[in-house]
Amino acid sequence: MFRFIHSSDLHLGKRFGGFTGDLPGRLREARHGVLGRLAVHAREQEASAVMLAGDTFDTETPASDVRRQALTEMGQHPSIRWVLLPGNHDSLQAAELWSRMAAEAPPNVTLAQQAQPLELAPDVFVLPAPCTTRRPGRDTTEWMDAAPTPTGVLRIGLAHGAIQTFTEEGSGEDVIAPDRARRSGLDYLALGDWHGAMQIDDRTFYSGTPEPDRFKHDRPGEALLVSLNGVQALPRITPLTTGAFQWRTLDLQVLSQDDPVEILRNLIPEPNQRRQTLARVLASGHCRLARHAALVAQAEDLSPDFAWFELDMDGLALEHDVDDLDDIERSGALRVAADSLLSDADDTSLSAAERAVAGAALARLYRHAQEKAS
């Protein structure tokens, strides 16, 4: 039995420039904390190695503190062998990065920089396929077919890239043969690049990122425990939870008779989970103005509980009658403003985003009028 943890796409040093306040720093620190969590899992599961299938760093020029602190953390777990593969974000084209890594890496860290068999343990060989550039333009795993290893040993492929047209950036280049494990006689092919865990066949898996960094995959951060019980035996795969933050996309579908505030309350996580949650709520359907305003108010009230909270109301259409506008004002400047905003919210010649802005402004005006009246 040989056990190891398969992970990838840590993207250490990612800046998260789309967020403000202390959140970018918290997200960067969570990515660094993944290393310790992987080590804990390795000890608990009696796994002797952690294999990182590319994009350990977010760029080819990570800050020196990001690089050094990552290596230091790995060195704090000397019983675990760490294998780092260059990915498309930290490819071998970054010669200075990998030369510094080679000089600074502790003894238990192996840099898989060459496409040649690497003996990881007795009767266990890793066949790495490092990315030579950000877009190698070829199947970097092809060499594995003829890679020589002793008879009766485990062959583990380690690569970073796309299967067919399957890639993070939507490109069809740099395709890895989907049946590479079979062609090369691999017991397991550990892949990186796709940020959500996915099985390609019985021996080929994407681990996904251990700490989510976007809403695209809507999956928890995880790594894979891989157990190989002999040459050509099928691997046993066990997902391991690793993420500190949850990125949640919540669909809030509203009918005219529904209370959107109640629906929202039933969708969101419990209060003790919100600080570690980034939530994007996608509202759709139809809603009367009063309930639209109440939903906006509820979202504003909930927002400080979360690491980040966004209510997207582009898909939520306003339903109204004259009584709704009368609740704001029957005449005068406020009524003129309300009529104008309602006209924009209903104007199909405007973009969905422009209509949503008008609807949100009308809801705020309605709230203001209600607060003033009370």
From TrEMBL:
Keyword field? Exonuclease, Hydrolase, Nuclease
What's one GO MF term for it?
exonuclease activity
Could you tell me which residue ranges the Calcineurin-like phosphoesterase domain spans? 2-162
What Gene3D superfamilies would the database entry show? Answer: 3.60.21.10
Q: Tell me the InterPro entries matching this sequence.
A: Calcineurin-like_PHP (IPR004843), DNA_Repair-Maintenance_Comp (IPR050535), Metallo-depent_PP-like (IPR029052), Mre11_N (IPR041796), UCP033093_metalloPase (IPR014577)
What is this protein identified as? DNA repair exonuclease
Could you tell me which species this protein originates from? Brevundimonas diminuta
* Organism lineage: Bacteria, Pseudomonadati, Pseudomonadota, Alphaproteobacteria, Caulobacterales
